[in-house]
Amino acid sequence: MLDINLIRSNPTWVQQQLAKRGCQVDFNSVIEFDNTRRNLIQRNEARRQKRNENSAIIAKLKKEGKDASKQIAEMKAIGDKITNGDAELNKINDKIFEILSALPNIPLPEVVAGGKENNRVIATFGKKPELNFEWKDHVSLATSLGLIDYERGAKLSGAKTWVYTGAGAMLEWALLNYFIDFHIANGYKFIMPPHLLNWDSGYAAGQFPKFVDDVFITNFDKDPKKSKFLLPTAETALLNLHRDEIVNNAQMPLKYFSYTPCYRKEAGSYRTDERGMIRGYQFNKVEMFIYCLPEHSPQFFEELVRNGQKLLEGLGLHFQTTALAAGDCSASMAKTYDLEVFIPSMKGYKEVSSVSNATDYQARRANIRTKDADGKTILLHTLNGSGLATSRLIPAILEQYQNADGSVNIPVALHKYMHGITVLKKK
User: Fold this and answer.
1) pLDDT in tens, 277-333
2) Cα–chain center distance at 150
3) CA–CA dist 362, 118 (Å, integer)
4) CA 248, CA 47: separation in Å to the nearest integer?
5) Given pLDDT bands bounded at 50, 70 and 90, which one contains residue 169?
6) Does the N terminus or the C terminus of the chain have fewer Cβ atoms within 10 A?
7) In sequence order, which residues have a C-beta less than 8 Å from that of residue 109 and are 6 or more positions away?
8) Which pLDDT band holds residue 29 (cuts at 50, 70, 90)?
9) pLDDT score, position 273
10) What are the strands, taking DSSP E only, across 264-390?
């Protein structure tokens, strides 16, 4: 959520920054509501002061045995005005809250304006594979090697689902163990959160109310705030660990990671190049998350990017790092880099990690604070990064490591997790 003080003091600048996202905003209504709100607060404060004065007079008159009926009537009238003023104030606050809740984050200065067309590849790693034989796509390889059962996945749950079988399940678990070991070695704390979250968690992360239709709601109530939903990413849970808390400054930074399945509606139909595991309702992901002081978020952003890069480099995969333009960043994020792995059959790259700096946007929604050296309460910055998602890594591994005979070499980094299997072969 954006700071109302920022909008109040410099609405034109905020409009210009949001325009980088393609978001056109008129702040006249929110400024008008804000002015009304402040006037109401001042009037009610004056009324409360008058009521207190009357209360003292009434007490004095009663002590002296004098008639206080006039003052009592006046105090009741003032009390009614205060009650009505508070009710009006609550309505105004709700209107301001509704407007601010729908606004995206302000992009950082270095983030370029525009949409996908202005995304920039800033680094490329490894050599693009050149296969000198008739290569197979990941769906064919996964099926022929008995790694993934798409038909039974559809039988169990419908489209956009699959079943890992045998060595395929082992490969998936090997990737997760590889990620987990890496993050533990780098000092991140392992968290396993619940998969079923409440409305407040979705709001704090910036997913609700605007993107409520993108998640699976399990017990939809007439009052959506009483509903629960399946987490679309571990980020949603990790952010909410410290919701409504004042975190000890001495603990900064807080570095967490989590493994969870992720559940997303993925509305719309498949593109022809998004078969198999590329886009599904459920997939596995390891997520990094950092809480830090505002002045340190740029350095931790770079740390998260480098962690994701190291994991991909360790797998020996060809990939690229892309700086997203403002309009392609998710609404809560001020800056995002995507790590995109090359998938030969798609003749392009697919995102396997998205590293983002939310600055104080999520912390304001979640009311996550600390105290600075002077004892002043300030909002923390939050950052997250996939480390990594598996559903696109397995297609990349199968295609980049395939052999002419239809077998697939397993990346060396995963050998210790594969119980002696180093090559995936037909049985």
Assistant:
1) 777 899 999 999 999 999 999 999 999 999 999 999 999 999 999 999 999 999 999
2) 29
3) 25
4) 38
5) very high
6) C
7) none
8) very high
9) 57
10) 282-292, 319-323, 335-343, 348-357, 369-371, 377-379, 381-389
Where are the domain boundaries for CATH 3.30.930.10 in the chain? 116-424
Structure tokens at 352: 């396997």
Q: Where in the chain is the domain with CATH 1.10.287.40?
A: 26-101
Q: 């490969």: which residue's tokens? A: 171
Mean pLDDT of all residues belonging to the chain: 94
pLDDT tens digits for 127-155?
998 878 888 999 999 999 999 999 999 99
Tell me the average pLDDT across 154-172. Answer: 94
| 294 contacts 108 by C-beta, under 8 angstroms | no
CATH number of 26-101: 1.10.287.40
Superfamily of domain 116-424: Bira Bifunctional Protein; Domain 2 (3.30.930.10)
- Whether the CB-CB separation of 245 and 369 falls below 8 Å is answered with yes
Where b means 16+ CB within 10 Å and e means fewer, 206-236 reads: bbbeeebeebebeeeeeeeeebbbbbbbbbb
- C-alpha torsion 348→354→357→360, nearest 10: 130
Q: Specify the pLDDT at position 181.
A: 98
